[in-house]
Amino acid sequence: MAKMGSKRGGKEDPEVPGDADESKNNRKRALILCFLALPVLVAFYGVVLWWSNPHTPGDELRIDEFTELLRQGRIQDAEILETDSRIAGSYERGQYWVAFSGGNETIFARLTSALEDAGVPFSVTQQPLKNLVYPVTLILPALILVDGLFILFLLFGRGGDGFSAFSRSGARRHQSGESKITFADVAGLDEAMEELVEVRDYLSNPDKFLAMGASVPKGILLTGPPGCGKTLLARGLAGESNVPFFSISGSDFVEIFVGVGPARIRDFFKVAKESAPCIVFIDELDAVGRGRSTHGLGGTDEREATLNQLLVEMDGFESGSGVVVLAATNRPDILDTALLRPGRFDRRVAIERPDVKGREGILRIHARGKPLSDEVDIEEVAKRTVGFSGADLANVVNEAALLAARRGSTVVEHRHFIEAIERLMAGPERRSRILSPQDRYRIAYHEAGHALVSTALPGTDRVGKLSIVARGHAGGFTWWIPEGDQASVTRSQLLDRIAAMLGGRAAEDLVTGDLSSGAMGDLDAAVSLARRMVTDFGMSSRLGAFSIRPLLNSATKEGLMSSGYSERIASEIDAEVQDMLRQAEERAKAVLVAERKVLDAVAHALMEAETLEGDVLDGLLLPVSQAPETVRL
Ligand code: ADP
Ligand code: MG
Ligand code: ZN
Q1: Which residues span the domain enclosing 71?
Q2: Which secondary structure element, helix H or strand E, spans residue 172, and what is its range?
Q3: Residue 487 domain-assigned (yes or no)
Q4: Whose Cα sits closest to atom 6 in ligand 1?
Q5: Last residue of a domain, one of 401, 425, 449
Q6: Which CATH number belongs to the domain containing residue 179 in this structure?
Q7: Sign of the torsion angle spanned by Cα atoms 504, 505, 506, 510
Q8: Whose CA is nearest to atom 27 of ligand 1?
Q9: Is residue 284 a part of any domain in this protein?
Q10: Which residues contact 329 (CB under 8 A, 6 or more apart)?
Q11: Between vectors from CA 554 to CA 552 and to CA 556, what angle results, nearest 5°?
Q12: What whole-number distance in Å separates Cα of residue 157 and Cα of residue 151?
């Protein structure tokens, strides 16, 4: 296999095996040749066909006319063309020709004797070239057919040598300078970027590092939630580094054909080692790196073999061999423990959802090249998008631009950003849905209830907007505006939030004396939050400092080994969750009863205006008095 030099601006996406470029060229040459040969062959065939037909000037005579004329002595001379089975010559009226059925000895003999008898001078011409016509007319069409098939094959065939084409790793080799993405396109991941910058610098100047006796890690694992820029960061590294960069997705190794996965890994690493120094990037590592299980039906064997091969290959390089393996996964928790042992992925870089500064940076990156109005406050947009991932933010900018275009505006305005955020959180408005007056009333009170309880309790976020226009499945909507990024939340804050979640339901109950199915989403969220408080955060008074995360089987990392706790604890958890919810609902009701006047005012304003936000909403909620400190359970 020829060693590849790193060419700038080479053809895009060459296959990994080194001679791929060359074989591609050969293929092109053969194709051109075949294309040129086709018209030549066809023309030749045509010429041969035309020429093989007899061409004799003069009148055609039937054979009986000819013998008659012969007898009358009106024929002057004759030439017998043997292969053409014709007699040609001149007679009193000029040129003539006669066709006779060829190959018949008796006719031939009779003709010659008749000519002799008539004393007409004649000659027999052998036409040896014409004897070749028959084999040529057989061979030429066959050649044309074969040429045509070759063209089809070269155009559409997979090429390569049969079965081994299956094991081609399918990796992409990025030429340096090919990727337009650089670290400048990544925001908010400074620490992670630092690690990668170190790798880049090491690979471009290993001597400097070796002189210091420092060794750069063999494997770096990027972990973190989806859409936060792991793949992007790797692509940035590809664009920045000046050594070859190979990328492949873990799922490319997972194949239904037995033995293909391990073969692909072998191919992939073989090519990488030949191109050292280089960077190898395996995206979605969990597809191959999932823990091995001892049980399980078919299919898992293949995956295990693939994973084993990966482990073998990773042990295969010396550190300092110049191959750095970069991998990314959303699920580090399910990776096989063997992968995480030192010497394989020995450095782990956690990528988190961006904080407010990071979000601002990401929004600015994606807003580049879009016509933004001067009044757009990117900082404010960043503040409003707590918990959004990088991909969500890219979406916000795109959606805002789409909205601006749809609304016929030439620049993207701040309100388009806000609307984009709302659409992404809750789906587009469904203004076409007609509500009965009762539903309108109930939904208005429901949303007003959320707003009131949130305003009264200190631990909740500020309410930024209320709406009774349907979106997605929800009849109405309450938007909370987080104050900022919080590293952690306290127990009292969480209890306040649960109360605010139940505020809508409590208001419905209070004013209509009835409950509706519309509060299902709120209820689900409240229950799961309460449950997490008890089981994950150890925030219950009954169970105390106790975490009851379900235990995963430590070897396979999948499936519940057991619930991990006893029946007694299970019923304690349920009782505790129930208590929390009951008390939260009582607190919500207490607020609503105390602030009934404000509740009515907000609900009626909402029925009137359909959406309330900004100063209007703040003004309506102003009279709400802050509830004293959170009640302790
Ligand atoms: P994942 O972590 O799941 O691999 P990606 O890297 O594929 O996420 O990110 C998806 C998209 O989100 C990127 O193409 C980019 O547009 C945007 N994005 C995510 N994180 C960032 C970031 N830190 N800076 C800029 N854009 C980002
Ligand atoms: Mg990714
Ligand atoms: Zn609600």
Answers
A1: 59-127
A2: strand 172-174
A3: yes
A4: 229
A5: 425
A6: 3.40.50.300
A7: positive
A8: 390
A9: yes
A10: 221, 222, 223, 230, 284, 285, 286, 289, 335
A11: 85
A12: 9
Ligand 1 binding pocket includes 459 (Cβ within 6 Å) = no
Instruction: Name every residue whose Cβ is closer than 8 Å to that of residue 405 and which is 6 or more positions away in sequence.
Output: none
Cβ within 8 Å of residue 232, ≥6 positions away: 181, 185, 186, 390
Ligand 1: nearest atom to the Cα of 222: 2
CA angle 471, 472, 473 (to 5 degrees): 105
**Residue 85 and residue 28 share a domain:** no
Q: What is the CATH number of the domain that holds 109?
A: 3.30.720.210
| Residues 72 and 202 both lie in one domain | no
User: Which position among 255, 302, 399, 447 bears the catalytic label?
Assistant: 447
pLDDT at 581: 94
What average pLDDT does the segment 619-624 reach?
87
Ligand 1 neighbourhood includes 230 CB (under 6 angstroms): yes
pLDDT in tens, 88-121: 888 888 888 888 776 667 777 777 888 888 778 8
Q: Which of 182, 186, 232 to mutate to test the pocket of ligand 1 (most atoms within 8 A of CB)?
A: 232
**Is 510 a domain residue?**
yes
| Residue 432 belongs to a domain | no
**Whether residue 245 sits in one domain with residue 388:** no
393, 366 Cβ separation under 8 angstroms: yes
Q: pLDDT confidence of 285, banded at 50, 70, 90?
A: confident
**In a shared domain, residues 329 and 259:** yes
| Residue type for position 38 | L
State the chain's mean pLDDT as an integer.
80
Confidence of residue 340 (pLDDT cuts 50, 70, 90): confident
316 and 403 share a domain? Answer: no
Is 287's C-beta closer than 6 angstroms to any atom of ligand 1?
Answer: no
Ligand 1 within 6 A of 236 CB?
no
Alpha-carbon distance 320 to 410, whole Å? 55
Tokens of 501: 């979640």
481: left (phi over 0), alpha (psi -120 to 50) or beta: beta
Position 381: which residue type? Answer: V
* Predicted local distance difference test score (pLDDT) of residue 506: 93
447 is catalytic: yes
- Beta strands (DSSP E) in 433-505 are 462-467, 477-481
292 and 255 within one domain: yes
Give how far Cα 410 sits from Cα of 159, 369, 379, Å: 51, 13, 22
CATH no. for residue 549? 1.20.58.760
Total number of domains in the chain: 5
532 with 498, same domain: the answer is yes
Residues 6 or more apart from 51 whose CB is under 8 A from it?
A: 133
- Give yes or no for residue 397 CB within 6 A of ligand 1: no
8 A C-beta contact, residue 334 and residue 223:
no
Q: What's the CA gap between 319 and 209, in Å, rounded?
A: 13
Dihedral angle at the C-alpha atoms of 270, 273, 278, 282, nearest 10 degrees?
Answer: 40
613/6 Cα distance (integer angstroms): 58
43, 63: one domain: no
560-562/172-174 β-pairing: unpaired
What CATH number is attached to the domain comprising 379?
1.10.8.60
Taking the centre of ligand 1 as the mean of its atom positions, its distance from the CA of residue 31, in whole angstroms, is: 42
Protein residue whose Cα sits closest to atom 7 of ligand 1: 231
Domain edge (last residue) among 425, 445, 475 = 425
